[in-house]
Design a protein that fits this description.
- The complex is a heterotrimer of chains A (287), B (357) and C (235).
- Chain A contains 11 helices and 2 strands; from the N terminus they run ααααββααααααα.
- With 287 residues, chain A is mainly alpha-helical.
- The N and C termini of chain A lie far apart (43 Å).
- The mean pLDDT of chain A is 92.
- Chain B has one domain.
- In chain B, 71% of the residues lie in helices and 6% in strands.
- In chain B, the strands form 2 sheets. Chain B has a 3-stranded antiparallel sheet, with no helix packed on it. Chain B has a two-stranded antiparallel sheet with strand order 2-3.
- The radius of gyration of chain C is 17 Å and the shape is globular.
- Chain C is 33% helix and 24% strand.
- In chain C, the strands form 3 sheets. In chain C, strands 8-9-10-5-11-12 form a 6-stranded mixed sheet, with helices on both faces.
- The chains are: A mainly alpha (287), B mainly alpha (357), C alpha/beta (235).
- The A-B interface holds A 28, 32-34, 36, 82, 85-86, 91-97, 99-108, 110-111, 219, 222-223, 226-227, 230, 260, 263-264, 267-268, 270-271, 274-275, 278 and B 58, 62, 64, 66, 111, 114-115, 117-119, 121-123, 125-127, 129-130, 133-134, 136-137, 260-261, 265, 268-269, 272, 276, 300-305, 307-312, 315-316, 319.
- Bound molecules: adenosine-5'-triphosphate and magnesium ion.
- Adenosine-5'-triphosphate is lined by residues 13, 16, 18, 36, 38-44, 192 of chain C.
Chain lengths: 287, 357, 235
């Protein structure tokens, strides 16, 4: 086993998991809503990319520019007409509704696309790699990781540098008082879910170009995303990246020891963090 | 004027008598019913039991678990392990399998109670996944592909000879009858036990916690301990049910026994569609579920798609489920848990009744 | 000129009626005090005025238009801003961001902006980067007032801005009121401290159990009349 190679692959895989997690974290941070269909929405976006790319004969990276606004709209409508109705003091309704959505989406995709695995064709990029001294890294994993960093920086800028970001944080603190400022919480929430769906589109792009996907893989992506969010500490986007890297590293190291242990090692790393640092690696100062 | 707290109504006393009579009649079913009907009834009863335990957690305890498959799987595998590796009688193994699920639930609770609300839900799911992956490593029980119960063990169940003689059936049918009786007993015991729990002081404390955790704490309710108690109880009940299900199936694999769709998603839909937070809801829900399954099972993914959509629709437009709709219209309660504050007015002798949660 | 007026305003919390046929009005540049005991309905009145509680449309008329049924986010755009009871600052926002969010509804280009507010309350300028909830109670109250002013409202509603503050701090805050009023805004002050409220107001209304029991000008009201209107006759 080439240790350095394993570590580099693990870190880069963490970028993908951070992309899965960023949307989940964004929505939770603003409206305390955990979307159990998050993984399935990523898979949905991957299929939309697949259709767009194959029908128009585009590279999936170009297709993403068309799918992103579509997902944005889906997110907006989903929040406005479905999820928004469930927000309240009781935590069961949003969970049960998003769980129902998860099952419904999986089976709708299964009905529409069959259980066959698919892959987004990224041409020469799929196999391209760069030699970095002792290790050679794939261009796609590198792009994934870079995208994760760009997404996190962009979200942080949005959150802390713009008027919309201020409104996000204010609404998340206290929606009733935010109304007194002229903020419409419902629009803020719809906007947040819509933006999360932009991130989901980017996540789907790399999910689909790096490996095969089929309609059933959503829940596992939700779980990785969730583990990354908890490891990072709720509400911290950079923490989410650290969480993603932790899971990615654990999985690649586990797989290097015994291929059957890949997924299990990721879960165990998560349980260890939960045991030792229940509030995650980078907990928010207040909550 | 005097007040008294009343939890039963005349209707509920009648329905108790009816329930006892119904269990008795169902117990006699094997004398008349075909094997196919018995198998369907077994399915309905075991799903009902699983649903009651999930409802106890989520509907009454506010603990939404997506990891019930962990207990079904552990129960099933514990039963298989005792039978295959230690030569136990499967019926004895079923009882002990519940204890195995209880044992596993202790570390599971330890981890998942560190997470709150929505994260508790995914936490239980992750733990169930961990158990599935660990069990798949266990080569003595078939690893990832699973294994079957030895024929000798399933043929010579305790009491099978007696059943064969009385009902004049073959040993496979005798196994079905025994499993059916156990499922019936389990469902009846689960409903009676949960009903009893909810009417006890603990049940009152539980609904206090669900309505307002802070107030409950201030009057001395230990919410944390209560949640542990129902978590453990539901693990035990789910584990026994899981063992029974796999006794009847006689074949187990990690993917099937730890399936989130079969043992949690279906259960959630049963409870949500029937009416969460009521005992009647899961009963109604399991019947609807069975009907839908008989009608749509051939359409594969359409079936699950429509279940998902039905679940969302119910949550959005009738969050108290079908039973909520029925009892709102008619005021009927078969298992009254809400306490009625009865005001005995001396002059007229009439009782005015107010609903009081 | 009458800026804001209520017509037999009624307010309910589910089955419970908290306000009964309240009639009051406010002119531009005027300060009106609302006094009353605990639970009299003062906060309910302000919540109705700012749109946080829904009323029948005609029951509140602002600038000649019915606004009773508008939501809080619509009302603030029309020009009624609220300093809520208990300040309700946003903990994840800094002092400056709390002020900026006050301008979310518009009103940029009016008299009040960050610079003007830092002039009014210099201490806020010094601590603008800190989380708002790390300030002292009085400073937090200044942020809450500043936040409401950032929308350059025509009517400013203040709910118990002196609650829990030291006398010297209260004086500082009340000293800022004339500056606010001089920009033409009408101010409604809710206070339990009768003398403080009356000394700052042109007119007052006393509320008891959801009804106006006395109104007038502070100079013309006797102590006894106010006492009776406040606590009920014979109390
Ligand atoms: N959210 C609510 N739900 C039900 N009743 C309420 C609610 N808020 C206030 N009330 C009731 O309405 C009445 C008026 O309350 P309000 O808060 O307006 O009084 P207040 O004059 O502001 O009192 P204080 O001086 O204590 O702030 C009280 O009887 C109160 O119990
Ligand atoms: Mg008040």
């Amino acid at each position: 086993m080439n240790y350095l190679d394993t570590v580099v692959q693990g870190v880069l895989l963490g970028g993908l998991y951070a992309l899965f997690a960023a949307g989940l974290s964004l929505v939770f941070g603003i409206m305390r809503l955990v979307n159990l269909a998050h993984g399935d929405l990523i898979v949905l976006a991957a299929y939309l990319l697949l259709i767009t790319a194959s029908v128009l004969g585009l590279s999936p990276f170009v297709a993403a520019a068309a799918v992103a606004p579509l997902m944005f709209g889906i997110g907006w409508l989903l929040q406005r007409h479905v999820l928004g109705r469930t927000l309240g003091a009781d935590i069961l309704p949003p969970l049960l509704v998003t769980f129902g959505l998860s099952i419904a989406l999986q089976n709708a995709l299964l009905q529409g696309f069959s259980a066959d695995s698919r892959r987004l064709n990224s041409g020469a990029l799929a196999t391209a790699s760069i030699d970095l001294g002792p290790v050679s890294v794939g261009v796609l994993p590198l792009l994934t990781f870079a995208s994760a960093i760009v997404v996190i920086i962009a979200l942080n800028q949005l959150f802390y540098r713009t008027e919309l970001g201020r409104a996000f944080r204010a609404t998340s603190d206290d929606a009733d008082t935010a109304r007194l400022m002229g903020i419409q919480p419902q629009r803020i929430f719809s906007g947040a879910t819509a933006i999360a769906m932009l991130v989901v589109t980017i996540a789907a792009l790399y999910l689909g170009t790096r490996a095969n996907f089929d309609p059933s893989i959503g829940p596992a992506r939700l779980i990785y995303a969730f583990e990354a969010v908890i490891i990072g500490g709720l509400g911290s986007l950079w923490g989410t990246l650290a969480g993603g890297i932790t899971i990615g590293l654990a999985q690649t190291i586990g797989a290097a020891i015994n291929p059957e242990w890949q997924i299990l090692s990721g879960h165990i790393a998560f349980l260890l963090v939960l045991l030792l640092k229940p509030r995650g690696l980078f907990p928010r100062a207040f909550d | 004027m005097r007040y008294s707290i009343q939890t039963s109504t005349r209707f509920s006393r009648v329905s108790l008598a009816l329930a006892v009579a119904m269990v008795f009649m169902l117990a006699l079913l094997p004398a008349y019913a075909s094997r196919g009907l018995l198998q369907d009834m077994f399915f309905i009863l075991t799903m009902l039991t699983l649903a009651q335990f999930w409802n106890l957690l989520a509907g009454y305890g506010g603990l939404l678990s997506i990891g019930q498959q962990a207990f079904v799987g552990v129960g099933g595998y514990a039963m298989f392990a005792l039978v295959i590796l230690h030569g136990w009688d499967p019926l004895a193994a079923v009882a002990v399998a519940g204890c195995a699920a209880l044992l596993v639930s202790i570390p599971m609770g330890f981890f998942s109670f560190r997470l709150h609300g929505a994260y508790f839900a995914i936490g239980t799911w992750v733990l169930a996944e961990v158990l599935r992956l660990l069990v798949a490593q266990f080569k003595a029980l078939g690893g990832g592909t699973g294994t079957s119960l030895p024929r000798a063990a399933t043929r010579n169940l305790w009491g099978a000879d007696w059943v064969k003689e009385v009902f004049d059936v073959k040993s496979a049918a005798a196994r079905d009858i025994l499993a059916y009786w156990l499922a019936l007993a389990l469902a009846a015991a689960a409903i009676a036990g949960i009903y009893y729990l909810l009417r006890s002081k603990q049940g009152l404390a539980l609904s206090a916690v669900r309505d307002n955790a802070e107030v409950a704490r201030s009057v001395g309710v230990n919410a944390h301990r209560l949640k542990w108690q129902i978590f453990l109880a539901s693990a035990f009940g789910t584990g026994i049910t899981g063992a029974l299900i796999y006794l009847q199936k006689a074949r187990i694999s990690p993917d099937a026994a730890f399936s989130v769709t079969d043992w949690t998603a279906y259960i959630i839909f049963i409870v949500v569609i029937g009416g969460i937070g009521t005992i009647e809801g899961p009963i109604l829900g399991v019947l609807v579920f069975y009907l839908l399954q008989s009608l749509l099972a051939d359409y594969g993914s359409w079936y699950l798609l429509s279940l998902g959509v039905a679940g969302i629709t119910v949550m959005l437009f009738a969050p108290r489920g079908l039973w909520g709709l029925i009892s709102d219209r008619t005021g009927v309660q078969c298992f009254p848990i809400r306490r009625l504050l009865v005001q005995h007015s001396n002059k007229t002798g009439e009782n005015s009744v107010r609903n009081h949660h | 000129m009458c800026l804001l007026k209520t017509n037999r305003l009624a307010a309910h919390y589910n089955d419970f009626q908290a306000l009964f046929a309240v009639d009051l009005h406010l002119d531009a540049g005027e300060t009106v005090a609302i006094i009353g005991a605990n639970g009299a309905g003062k906060t309910t009145l302000l919540r109705s005025l700012c749109g946080a509680l829904a009323n029948a449309p005609e029951q509140i008329v602002f600038d000649g238009e019915p606004v009773g049924a508008l939501s809080a986010e619509q009302v603030v755009r029309r020009g009624i801003a609220m300093v809520p009871e208990g300040r309700k600052l946003f903990p994840s926002l800094s002092v400056e961001e709390n002020l900026q969010i006050g301008g979310y509804a518009g009103g940029a280009g009016g008299f009040w902006n960050l610079a003007k507010l830092y002039e009014l309350f210099p201490v806020l300028g010094e601590r603008r980067r800190q989380p708002a909830t790390r300030l002292s109670g009085g400073q937090q109250q200044m942020v809450a007032i500043g936040r409401a002013l950032m929308s350059n409202p025509k009517v400013l509603l203040c709910d118990e801005i002196s609650l829990g503050l030291a006398p010297a701090v209260i004086r500082d805050i009340y000293n800022a009121l004339p500056g606010i009023r001089s920009q033409g805004a009408g101010v409604i002050l809710v206070e339990q401290d009768i003398s403080r409220a009356l000394s700052a107001a042109n007119r007052f209304y006393c509320i008891m159990e959801g009804r106006v029991t006395l109104s007038g000008e502070p100079e013309n009201a006797s102590r006894d009349a106010i006492h009776d209107a406040y606590f009920g006759v014979g109390a």
